Structure formats: structure tokens, C-alpha cells
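Supplementary material to the annual report.
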Amino acid sequence: MFNFIEHRKIWYIISLLLILPGLFSMVTQGFNLGIDFTGGNLVEVRLEQGVKIEQVRDVVEGLGFAASNNIQKSGTTDYIIRTRELTEDESATLISTLERKVGEVNLLRNDRVGPVIGRELTVNAILSLLIAAVLMLVYITFRFEFKQGVVTIVALLHDLLVVLGVFSIFQIEVDSAFVAAILTIIGYSINDKIVIFDRVRENSRMRKKGESVEDLVNISLWQTLVRSLNTGMSVLFVLLTLYFFGGTTLKTFILALLIGVVIGAYSSMLNASPLWVDLKLREKKAAAK
Amino acid sequence: MRWSKLLTMAAIILAIAALCITAAVPLPMFKDITWLPWSNQTILGLDLQGGVHVVLEAKDTPSAKVDDESMKRAQAVLERRINETGVAEPVIQRQGERRIIVELAGIKDPEKAVIDLIQPAYLEFKNELGQTIITGADLKDALEARDPNSGQIEVDLTFTKEGTGKFAQATTANVGKPIGIYLDNKLLQNPVVEEPITHGQARITGYESLEEAHTIAILLRSGALPVQLNVMEKRTVGPQLGQDSLDRSINAGIVGLVAILVFMIVYYRIPGLIADLALIFYALLVLAIFIGIHATMTLPGIAGFLLSLGMAVDSNVVIFERIKEELRTGKSIRSAIDAGFRRGFVAVFDSNATTLIAAIVLYYFGASMIRGFAVTLSIGILVSLFTAITLTRWLLHLTAATNVVKDPRYYGA
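Predicted assembly:
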């Protein structure tokens, strides 16, 4: 039987290799922040067949609304236009000018976000992350033990950094749905960790004399392996169908969840539990001294 | 084989099938029953049927300071203006000290609705010297009309008793001179008074279309906004995108659900089939609860629901893996089911509880869009705990008791 715990150094190194490029990217190039954070307008329109993207750009730039060169074609006739924040009258002007210059306009979506909202979103996101972390730590300490709570939070932080890293490296736009995704990942990935610790808890009650912590956790990991894989798979099914068949509006959200679910399964087995073993061994050493 | 148990089983399957059909399929024989298929009763959010969500913030101006009183009046004015347009089930909500959230679903032109909504609509009649004679506060009614003789479009004003008096006085004093009619400080018209007007009625002309006059009449009727409202955040979804999103979500939901159902049967066989029955019932129950509490189904809400479906599957997987282990130790099917549920439940409970904590925190700190997600996720988790533990367990025991399938291999061992 393969021993997961014995090779834990390898898992830690893989985790570091996953995190470091992301961290580097976050420091050097930061995030591609959407209007939810920066403020501005995002206008999605469906135009007549054959309209050129340059025509749309000319209209937006002609009106002086353009943000930094941000007009995208999505699908065959849909265009996403990002502008500075537009007043309601300016929005109406944009649509009527488009109608005059390029033909019929079907307004699919027009999001306007003031700069204050972005700040509030960031503050709220960080606040809710902290509160959720503390509450989970309390719950796990109450139901399991404090050290398992600590390694769970560390593993969650790892998941978070990987997801943030991917979004920073590939400069995928970050919006308020992304914030919701991060919080969902945390709620979801904690599931895996709890199921494994539940097995550890149960096994340590029936622990044979002389059985090491390493073996105890390794057996627990094997016992929960099928469940981790099966659950992970069925969640991936749902997410993949949502990603490919669900509308564009939720794409970022689903993408973040996809990465989060995979990385969460990894860190539950190969970060949280081995780290707990390390903490336990250290505890033992300290007691022996 | 025990026929009574088998019959119970068949009855349950039929009942769930009937629930499914009444929920989703429009049957010709029930076409007179308006609430069937009952899934149509779901209230769709504006992202699924088109509409606008807008956060308005009141701003202090030299002439009007923002306080609790003026915010309440502003909210009342918004309510009146929206009711005049006949939008079904609008949301008009105060948030914090100086913000009002407005949500209008299912309207044709959401952009224009917002523009109309935040018009101050302050009506004034001023004399030559620029002194205000009467204001919108003296107004009793305003109606758009087309003059039957000239075809001219106009808004007819009726003044209150007090207003009538003031207007009579002013027109008497200003015969032969102009009186300016201003809306939001913009001169609409500057007619010259020909004779004193004492009957309390006046009219404004000079509109392009009857709709324009209608909009102005609504603004005047509902009164002036006591404070200046600025748009802080606005999310407009056109009807087309709403319909697209709804269709796509339903498709994605069905594909995802079928994938899970197939996976469960292939991998877990008899328990998988039972879990599938329980999952279908679970999905219907969540939908029914949603309709029951008049919750609004939004796009993030659907995502939350599908994720809770994943959690529900997880509960089953955890427990079934436990049952398999128990079977391998040589236990009978029935005692393995019991032991599996007993041991699996602790893990299921703890993992669901922590996710619930995350969902509740999301609800308290999230924006309204995120809240929809948190609500469905929470309801989903609670219901899934219930169905996974009670219904799946009961059905498994029932199946075991029918004695149709005796080989433990069909239970995954």
C-alpha cells in the first residue's frame, strides 16, 4: 500500500511550486480587476450580422467613453464594451449612437458600478473570509481538535493562493462573482478535510498499541480515498456541464470553482493531514524532552 | 420476496414520478388548473427574465440635506412612480442610511425605467421676476391627453384647493405677462396669461409623443424627489439575455443531474438507484420550498442549488462507502446499512455544518447577488441532510426487506 504520509515532503514541494509562480505574478502584475472593483460600465450588445469590431470601437471612442481599449467580441454577434462609468444619459447616448451608426442594437446587459462599490466589495470579501475562518476554527476545535483546525485553515489558505495565482497569471478578469467563488471554494474544500479528519478521529479511538500517527493517518487517507475521488468527480460533472452549457455570465465563477475543487481535494489529502502529522510528532518530541 | 414491501416501493416510485410530471410537464388533461406544471410558480430573478437592479444613493445638496425623513419620503416617491408603471413585484428597499435598492423584473426597457425613476420632477410656475408662484406640491393630479380639436399633446394639471387660490391670485396679477413652467429647473413653456384662471386647471403643451407626456404626468403625479439620488450601481439585463440564461441553466442543470444519476447507478448499483430516487425527490423538495417561501430564483441561486446537489451526492457517497466496508466485514445487508449510516452520519453532519457556516457568512456580508447563492446553498444543505439520512435510509431498508436482491454484490460489496 502506497504510504501518503511517508512522502509528505514531496507534496509540500509540489504545493510550493504551485503557489510561488502565482505569488510572484500577484506581486508583479496583480489582477485583471473588473468593473466591480474599479468602477465603470460593462455593456453587452447584440448587433446585426457582419458588424466589424472597429465600427463599434469608433463609436465608443468617438463619444470619449472608452476605457483602455476594451471591446471584445463574444460569439458571432455579441460585443462586450467596457467604458468608464457612464451616467444614465451617457448610456442612452451610447446605445442611440450605436443604433445610428451600425444598425439595430439589442441591449443584453449594462452594468454600472461606482468606485465606492468596489472598495466595499473588497472590504466585505476580506471581512467575510476572516469571519468564516474564525468560525470554522471554532467549530473544528469544538468537534475535533484545535490543531486540526489550524492545519485546515492553512490548507484552505493554500487553496486560495493557488486559485488567486491562476487568475493573476492568466490575467482572467476578477469580479464580484469571483469573490463568491472563493468563499464557496472554502466552504466546499473544507468538506474534504472534515471527512478525512472524521476518519482519523474514529480510528484514533480504536488505535492499536504501538501504531504510529503516520500509519493512523495513512490508513484513514486510504479509507476515505474512494469517497474523495467519487465526490470530487460528481462535483466536477456538475461544474463542467455548467461551464460548457451554462451562460457566459457565470463562466468566471465556475472556472474558479473548478480549480478550487481540484486543488481542494489535493490539499485535503496531501497537505492538511500530513501537516497535522507533523504537528503531532513535534508535540511528542516536546513531551519526550 | 415480500409483496407488501414491494408494493410500497412501487407506490413510492410512482409518487415521485407523478411529482416530477406535475412539476415539469404541461399535461393537456390538467390544462384548466392554472398552477400546473407547478415549477412555473417559481419567481424568476431579473437576471433570468430581464430587468434592472439599481443601488441609489442620496446626496446632500445645498438646498436639500439628507436625513431619515427625506429618505423615507424619497422611498415613498419611488414606490409611487414604480407602481404607476405597473411593474409586477418590484423591490424597493432601504439599505443603510442613504441608499435605496430598486429591483424591477420583466420590464421591456430597463434603461429608460432607471432614467425616469431618478428624475427629480420638481415642478414650478414662475412669474416674470423669477419668483415661484406655485410648485408641484400644490398639484392634485396630472394627466396626459391629446386635444381632440388640434391633435396637440398636452399634460392637464389639476391644482389642490390651496393651489387653485394661489394660481388664481397670480394669474390675476400677471394678465398680459408670461408665466414660466419649469420642470427640474428646465423651462418647458412660457405662456402669456390672457385672463385670470380661477377654476384650478392648467395645461402644459409641447410634447413630441403621448408617451413622453405620459412619463411627465407620472413624474408630476408621484411628486418630487426630496433629495438628489445618484446611481451607485446598476445591473441591467435585457429580456434576451435573461431568456438565454434561463434556457442554458435549465439545460446545464438537466445534463449535470443526469450525469450524476447515471454515475451513481453505475458505481453503486442498488444503493445508487435508491440515492437517485432520493436525489430527484430532493431536487423537487428544494424547488417546492423555494416556491413556498416566495424566494426569487436567480442565476447564482441556480448555481448554489446545483452545488448543494453535489453536497447531497457527497452525503450518499460517504455513507455508501461505509456500507460497503461494513459488508466486507461479513455483516448482513440490513445491519451493514444501519452501521454504515450511523458511522457515515458524523462525517456528513460535520462537513455540512462547516459549509453551512460559510454560506451563512456569505449571506450576511455578500451583495444581493451573492445572497441568492447563499440562500439556495443553505436550504439545499439542510434539505439534503434530511433526505440523505431519512429517505435514502428508509428506502434502502425497504429494498432490503423486499428480498428481491439478496446478493450483497449488488450493494457494492
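Chain B has two domains: 3-40+238-411, 46-236.
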